Amino acid sequence: APSSLPFPPCPGFPRTLGQAKALDGICQLDLVISLNIPFETLKDRLSARWVHPASGRVYNMDFNPPHVQGVDDLTGEPLVQREDDRPEAVAARLRKYKDAAKPVIELYKSRGILYSFSGTETNKIWPYVYTLLSSRIPPVLPDEEH
Predict the structure, then answer these.
(1) Does the pLDDT value for residue 1 go beyond 50?
(2) How far apart are the first and last CA of the chain?
(3) Domain extent at residue 61
(4) What are the φ and ψ backbone dihedral angles of 3, each rounded to 5 degrees?
(5) What is the pLDDT of residues 38-66, one digit of tens each?
């Protein structure tokens, strides 16, 4: 659902050409959406992520911070930043993802089923994605309307 929150900073599926080929074996895609988000935006968002280890609750210091800096809202226990969320690690992860995803993007582009959208916030890009999906997927009607 649309919101004013930024995109979740996690790549979708398939992420590699091997995964794309495996997916071909079980279904035929007719629409693939690629969200192009600037590298620095992704790096900043991922680097701002902190977690409460015991519960798995996730905070983002930019758009979903804890009430008290550095501690979980419910328990008051310290939050930690995962090693792979530190800025240097995030940059390396994003470079690796981009290299792995490039052939996947090219594959779907060559098939004519890739639709790309660029932006940094859900509420600004969602209307375009929604319009595309609405034009390709029939609406779901409640049971009483069938």
Answers:
(1) no
(2) 25
(3) 23-29+39-118
(4) -155, 180
(5) 988 888 888 899 999 999 999 999 889 99
Cα Dmax for the chain: 54
Spatial distance between the Cα atoms of 14 and 20, rounded to a whole number of angstroms: 5
What is the mean pLDDT of the segment spanning 8-17? 70
Confirm whether 68 is domain-assigned. yes
14: burial class by Cβ within 10 Å (0-12, 13-18, 19+)? buried
In a domain, 130, yes or no: no
Name the domain count of the chain: 1
**Is the residue at 8 inside a domain?**
no
Q: Domain of 110: which CATH number?
A: 3.40.50.300
Query: What DSSP letter does each residue of 65-127 carry, written as one string?
Result: --SSTTB-TTT-PBPB--GGGSHHHHHHHHHHHHHHHHHHHHHHHHTT-EEEEE-S-HHHHHH
pLDDT in the model for residue 46? 84
104 is written with which tokens? 């996947």
